[in-house]
Amino acid sequence: MSDAPVREGRRTRGGGGAARRAARTAVSVETEKFITRNVPNYEVLTEEALDVIEANAETVLAEIGVSFVDNPEALERWRKAGAQVDGERVRIPRGLARKLCATAPSTFTQVARNPERNVEIGGKNLVLAPVYGPPFVRDAEGGRRYATMADFEKFVKLGYMSKWLHHSGGTVCEPTDVAVNKRHLDMLLTHMVYSDKPFMGSVTEPSRAQDSVEMCEILFGKEFVQENTVMTSLININSPLTFDNIMMGALEVFAKNNQASIISPFIVGGAMAPVSVAGTLTQVLAEVLAGVAYSQIIRPGAPVIFGAFVTSIDMNSGAPTFGTPEASHVTYGAGQLARRLGLPYRSAGSFCGSKLPDAQAAYETANSLQMGLLSGVNFMLHSCGWLEGGLVASFEKFVMDADQLGTLHHFAKGVDMTENAQAMGAIAEVGPGGHYLGCEHTQKNFKTAFWRSELMDYKPYETWYEEGARDTQVLATARVKKLLDTYQQPALDPEIEARLRAYVAEKKASMPDAFT
Hints:
- This protein is α/β, with parallel strands linked by helices.
- It has helices spanning 17-25, 47-64, 72-81, 96-101, 149-161, 183-194, 206-220, 222-227, 245-256, 277-298, 325-341, 359-374, 395-412, 419-422, 424-430, 440-449, 461-466, 472-485, 494-509, and strands spanning 35-36, 66-68, 84-86, 89-91, 107-110, 119-122, 125-128, 136-139, 143-146, 199-200, 231-237, 242-243, 260-269, 304-313, 320-321, 345-347, 379-380, 386-387, 392-394.
- Residues 1-15 have low confidence and may be disordered.
């Protein structure tokens, strides 16, 4: 099957008037532009294998179908679109889902309140966002504990101060000290006030998605939100093949309002998908096709991202495993499928199953991050801070991972083949038996020649020992403190901030607390 045609993403303005005014007065915090790859994607599947998986996915949709649970409006929309609806089961004729997906843009721009931080999602680009969803946090001083709103605010500030992160994310941790039905308001306000990077909307209930849209209308302007994408949201599919009314209700709100959704199967191989790579890819593709197609039924042209959260399961303990070869195969293969559909791709992250930011965490995370870069991921959620299978957001690991994201930036540049990089003059100057430390080329290029960690220790043993023989976690604790101590809030129009705070206060006062 041939590649899908490349479609142009919608044009966007640089930001609302308030965003431009804020940018002119904002304190400058260095953030690298989103990654644009100059290296090839790694492909594990042949064209023949891709054809088989695509044909099998069409069979799944047409003969087995997917369930849209407790959502009669969705069932009626599918019926009008040409699907066969039997109870809550939707069977989609071959080719229909792919035809509906054709209106989704291949790239789109998510606008930040500081236009310099806008990100382009799709193509050869890679946007990095922090961990999402853990109910627990961990740091060296307090250990493992339930997350609070104070923890959430610290993570947003760390994300804003982190050079290699392009995106503020969404539920960086779940603040359990705030009522379930109100915490989304506080989290959104925190992203909007304490960072000027792009952020994610709430998906835990359709009304909360609508609150997200309305808060963005205060921040950017109502008309601007309808014409531009200012939020990305995570819409998980209840694998296998089930679309619940909460997530689909949130998707409907975001799609209707021109905001982006990541359509993401939640795959634990052996539990929520087959144990085989080909079987898992077939199910992933079927679920994504159905989800993306539904978004386009709501609003043709609504921005969406092909998502794949992939892990396997330890068949002895039942625990999820990360950084494994099988997860890599699925992630690489899903990237190939996304590109054939002409859709932006979300997958990978700083995945690990370790309880601490230790060697296991480092090995598994390094495997997962590099896999994400080479698989062609365009939006990498969970790129820093993930611990204990996603149950914990770790402050130390957040800055450790964020530092290592710099390696992705530098690797993605590819090999420089300019005349300066060829270094023929340096080779001639040094000649046989010499060294390059003092030559003209080294003096000219040494400041930018190599990526340098802002966290790792490269000092001689004696110096390291005299400074306290600090391991990486101790260094990370110090870096967390430094970043928070030097944090400076980006400027925001005081009138807009007051309106946002008033909206949140009014919404919270309008309903009793609910903790379930």
